Amino acid sequence: MTWAKILVSPCNLFGQITIVMTSMPADSNTFIHSGIVSKINGSSIIVALDQNIHCESCRAKALCGVSDSASKEIEVTDPSNSFKVNEAVEVTLRKSLGHKAVFWAYVFPFIIMIATLLIASSIFEEWFAGLLSLFILIPYYVLIHLLNNHFKKTFKVSISRTH
Description:
It is built from five helices and seven strands. By secondary structure, the chain is an alpha+beta fold. This is RseC/MucC family positive regulator of sigma(E).
């Protein structure tokens, strides 16, 4: 079994953060999602993740980005260049990283927005407080984009060939 480290880019991280969250757990600490290498560009490869058959029975289906289309793609770095186009692979993510990704993409911005709304409501009119609480997310996501390299180091997952 060949293992290589891959990195989730911030675009995929926040655009498709839950792509591996509804996959079948390999053990109690990891999620595994199957896919096919769809494109290789140098040491960067694109893996098209298959729709999970377990999505239909999942209680969190409405909240998840995986179940809304047949295939999602994730960009990964393969320094070994050992994978080929149309090769079946499995992408593995530790549960703790999945929870951390959900926190930074959904929970923390929600907290910032609600806190801004509550504080601004005591100072400004309601309509302005509402707009301010929405616009506060712009600098947040710009900061997330600027921290691209940090998130690439933090959100490491593994890829392996399927047999």
